[in-house]
C-alpha cells in the first residue's frame, strides 16, 4: 500500500528526505510462508504497481468477508469494525485471528470448528508471486530488497547464502541486513550474505505504526549507514531505462 507516502511527505521537516518505498507480501513456491518484498525509490504513481496493489487489497477484502461469514455460520459474531484496532492499513489474516481470540469466537465455537476457522483466516490470498512483486518494483523504477530474512524460517534467524540463493534469483537487488532485531545480532551475518551473493544490503525498522501490544513505534529505531541509501539510489538510477 502506498497510502502512507503523502502523509509522510506532509509530516516530514523540509531537510528530511522521504524515499518512496513499499513492502509487498508475495507468494513463494517453497513453503506456505509469504515472503515480504521491499521496494525503494519507486514511482508510486506507476499504473501497473497501483493495479496490482488494488487487486491485492480487493482479494484481502473478499478473504475477510469469507472468514466473517464462516464465523457467523457456526453461530459466532465478529464484525469488520472489530478488526480496526489490529490493522495497519487494512485487515488481513492476523487481524482475523486476533479478533477471534479477543471476541471469544473460538471459545464459543462448536467442537472441531475453531481450528478450521483459524486455518481459514490464516490462508490469506496472494495477488503476486515473489518474482512478480520484484518485477513490479523494477517496472516502477525501484530497487527490490528481501525483507527481514531473520523472519523467513521460524526458529532459524540466520539463513545461509545457499539457502537464500533461489529466493535472491527471483531478481532481488538487495537483502535487508540492518533491521530491528532484539539484541542487534544478525546484521553482520546478512551483510556477509549480501556480499557473497553480489547484491546490496538495505536496512530499516520494519515499523508498521503503533503496535497493539504497547503502543510503541519503531520508526527511526534502526540506524542504517548512509552509504546503504546512496548505493540503493545508484542502483535504482542504473536500472532505469534511458
Ligand atoms: Zn514484513
Mind explaining what this structure looks like?
The chain has 242 residues and is of the alpha/beta class. Helix content is 42%, strand content 11%. The chain has nine helices and five strands. The chain has helices at 4-11, 47-73, 93-102, 105-108, 114-122, 130-139, 161-168, 187-197, 226-239; strands at 21-26, 35-40, 143-146, 174-179, 200-204. The chain has a five-stranded mixed sheet. The longest helix has 27 residues, at 47-73. The protein is globular, with a radius of gyration of 19 Å. The relative contact order is 0.13. The model has no long low-confidence stretch (mean pLDDT 89). It binds zinc ion. Residues 23, 36, 147-148, 206 line the site of zinc ion. Zinc ion (ZN) binds next to loops.
Quick rundown:
The chain has 242 residues and is an alpha/beta fold. 42% of the residues lie in helices and 11% in strands. The protein has nine helices and five strands; from the N terminus they run αββαααααβαβαβα.
Features:
alpha/beta, 9 helices, 42% helix, 11% strand, globular, binds zinc ion
Secondary structure elements and pairings:
Blueprint: H1 4-11, E1 21-26, E2 35-40, H2 47-73, H3 93-102, H4 105-108, H5 114-122, H6 130-139, E3 143-146, H7 161-168, E4 174-179, H8 187-197, E5 200-204, H9 226-239
Parallel strand pairs: 3-4, 4-5
Antiparallel strand pairs: 1-2, 2-3
Bound molecules: zinc ion.
Residues 23, 36, 147-148, 206 line the site of zinc ion.
Strand content: 5-15%
- What are the distinct ligands in this entry? zinc ion
Oligomer: single chain
Mean pLDDT: 89
Report the total helices.
9
Question: Spans with pLDDT under 50 lasting ≥5 residues?
Answer: none
Number of strands: 5
Helix content: 40-55%
Structural class: alpha/beta
Roughly how many Å apart are the termini? Answer: 28 Å
Give a short account of the largest sheet.
5 strands, mixed
- How do the SSEs run, as a string of H and E? HEEHHHHHEHEHEH
Taken from the alpha-carbon principal axes, the silhouette is globular
Amino acid at each position: 500500500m502506498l497510502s502512507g507516502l503523502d502523509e509522510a511527505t506532509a509530516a516530514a521537516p523540509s531537510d528530511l528526505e522521504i524515499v518512496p518505498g513499499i513492502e509487498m507480501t508475495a507468494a513463494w513456491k517453497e513453503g506456505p510462508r509469504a515472503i515480504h518484498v521491499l521496494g525503494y525509490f519507486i514511482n508510486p504513481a506507476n499504473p501497473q504497481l497501483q493495479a496490482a496493489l488494488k487487486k491485492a487489497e480487493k482479494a484481502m477484502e473478499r478473504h475477510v468477508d469469507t472468514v466473517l461469514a464462516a464465523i457467523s455460520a457456526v453461530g459466532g459474531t465478529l464484525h469488520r469494525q472489530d478488526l480496526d484496532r489490529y490493522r495497519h492499513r487494512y485487515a488481513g489474516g492476523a487481524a482475523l485471528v486476533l479478533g477471534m481470540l479477543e471476541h471469544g469466537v473460538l471459545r464459543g465455537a462448536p467442537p472441531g470448528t475453531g481450528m478450521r476457522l483459524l486455518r481459514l483466516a490464516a490462508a490469506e490470498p496472494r495477488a503476486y508471486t515473489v518474482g512478480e512483486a520484484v518485477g513490479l518494483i523494477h517496472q516502477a523504477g525501484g530497487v527490490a530488497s528481501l525483507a527481514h530474512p531473520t523472519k523467513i524460517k521460524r526458529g532459524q534467524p540466520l539463513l545461509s547464502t545457499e539457502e537464500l540463493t533461489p529466493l535472491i534469483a527471483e531478481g532481488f537487488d538487495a537483502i535487508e541486513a540492518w533491521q530491528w532485531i532484539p539484541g542487534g545480532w544478525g546484521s553482520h551475518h546478512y551483510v556477509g550474505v549480501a556480499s557473497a551473493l553480489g547484491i546490496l544490503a538495505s536496512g530499516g525498522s520494519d515499523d508498521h505504526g503503533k503496535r497493539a501490544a504497547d503502543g510503541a513505534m519503531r520508526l527511526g529505531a534502526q540506524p542504517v549507514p548512509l552509504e546503504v541509501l546512496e548505493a540503493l539510489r545508484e542502483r535504482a538510477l542504473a536500472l532505469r531505462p534511458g
